Amino acid sequence: MKKILMCSMLAFSLLSPSLASAHSPILDCFDNGDGTITCEGGFSDGSSASGVKLSILDASGTLLMQGKMNNDSEYTFKKPGGAYKVVFDAGDGHNVEVDGAKIVQ
After folding, report:
1. Buried b (16+ CB within 10 A) or exposed e, 80-104
2. pLDDT(74) > 90
3. pTM recorded for the entire structure
4. List of residues 6+ apart from 43 with CB closer than 8 A
């Protein structure tokens, strides 16, 4: 999956040359098929997302769980029941949200 994320970051950088130097956040989440979700993050300039905060919120915006990307820029969590979203929060202007309904195997 890391290869997919790296290819996504490269494609983003090539297709958006004016944004490539802007250090844009990138987040990809997938269902592991075992009741857990793994999210991989990074930045368009190739830098690590290690330590970046991830929040999992329910449909009303209530915090269900929170953690940080590990040294491999990944975070795995138990898939919540019901509607949810994942928020990658790397600071002002560096947030990405992924709707849980779009996270598939």
Report:
1. beeebbbbbbbeeeeebebebeebe
2. yes
3. 0.77
4. 9, 23, 24, 25, 26, 49, 90
